[in-house]
Amino acid sequence: MSRATRVMVTGAAGQVGVDLLDVLEGVIPPGGDRSFQPDGRSIPEGEFDVLALTRHDLDVADRDAVHRAVRAARPDVIVHLAAYTAVDRAETEESACFTVNGAGTESMSLAAHENGAHLIAISTDYVFDGNKGGAYVEDDATNPLNVYGASKRAGELLCSSDDTVVRTSWVMGVRGKNVAHVIAERASSGQSVRFVNDQTGTVTVASDLARVLATLARERPGGLWHVANSGTTTWFDVAAYIGEILGRDDGFATAIATTDLDPPPLATRPIRSDLSTKKFATAWSALPDWRDGLTRLIRDRGSRGVDQ
Questions:
Q1: Both ends of the chain: CA-CA distance in Å?
Q2: Residue 155 to residue 4: CA distance in whole angstroms
Q3: Predicted pLDDT at 176
Q4: What's the Cα-to-Cα distance from 254 to each of 103, 184, 193, 249, 263, rounded to whole Å?
Q5: DSSP letter string over the chain?
Q6: Positions in the chain short of pLDDT 50
Q7: What is the reported pLDDT for 88?
Q8: What does DSSP assign to residue 36?
Q9: What is the pLDDT at residue 305?
């Protein structure tokens, strides 16, 4: 019997992290799709030996601590999910954001290569400015509009060319805090919502992303990969669809413009930052449609209980 693949997961208590731990153990996480196997193989119990690290276990901004952790764990693969993700707060905490997302990712890359591990690092659609007028492919030029996007772009540039960098967008999981739960709670309580219809992007359901990360941990392809659920949408359409799932009528969600937001967000978002996932779909298979993913998420909301 072959040796289990040793995987170190940072940010293991986040909404993607908890789903990834399930997937690597051969368990379908809440909101997951048992039929979605992008590499055509299920994950048996015992294939992966997982070391899960939360932000309390490892401060990724501490370079020495990162190197000690990787040296002690001797992983085959590192899935680096730990990040500074408060997009608006980052505008006033630029140094802290860059320390985690830029320097922290560099430390992880260096430590991985010093210890013979393959790094899978997570980035964002916010590395783009939204001016392309169509879905972004991996080779498109980046031009982030906000501090968070700039910090993630810095992390990309500080990775080795051998590392695998996954850009994803609008991530929503059953467990953890995200906009899908806010919408669902208001729909269930009889309230209404207002969401912008002039920001276009791609939804990524955490359970589907987790299954992709397991495939990448097996394959270790290196390079840039865009990963998101199939189909392009707007925040208004997301809200309206969740309302529909929960039996609300057309009046539940009202479409507004970004300029109508009060107070206005501190960070500028790209108007259109949807990701083309053709590269991943060609190599393995396309992720399920975003509506399918959100349907599963709302169906399994009762199993929440993990905070980011």
A1: 36
A2: 29
A3: 85
A4: 41, 15, 6, 11, 17
A5: -PPPEEEEEESTTSHHHHHHHHHHTT-PPTT--TT--TTS----TTSEEEEEE-TTT--TT-HHHHHHHHHHH--SEEEE------TTGGGT-HHHHHIIIIIHHHHHHHHHHHTT-EEEEEEEGGGS-S-SSSPBPTTSPP--SSHHHHHHHHHHHHS-TTSEEEEE-SEE-SSS--HHHHHHHHHHTT--EEEESS-EE--EEHHHHHHHHHHHHHH---EEEE---BS-EEHHHHHHHHHHHTT--TTSEEEE-GGG-SSPPSSPPPSB-PBP-HHHHHHS-PPPBHHHHHHHHHHTGGG-----
A6: 306-308
A7: 97
A8: -
A9: 54
Two tokens, residue 132: 């392309």
What is the β-pairing status of strands 200-201 and 233-234? antiparallel
The DSSP output letter for 142 is P
pLDDT of 1 reads 52
Among residues 84, 136, 148, 241, which one is catalytic? 148
Q: How many angstroms from the chain centroid is the CA of residue 297?
A: 15
171 token code pair: 């991530």
Identify the three-state secondary structure at position 46.
coil
Q: Decide if 148 is catalytic.
A: yes
The encoded tokens of residue 87 equal 């997009």
The span from the CA of 146 to the CA of 162, in Å, is 27
Task: Report pLDDT digits (tens) over 31-74.
Answer: 999 999 999 999 998 999 999 999 999 999 999 999 999 999 99
Q: By the 8 A CB rule, do 164 and 197 touch?
A: no
How many other CB atoms are there within 10 angstroms of residue 34's CB atom?
8
**pTM of the entire structure?**
0.95
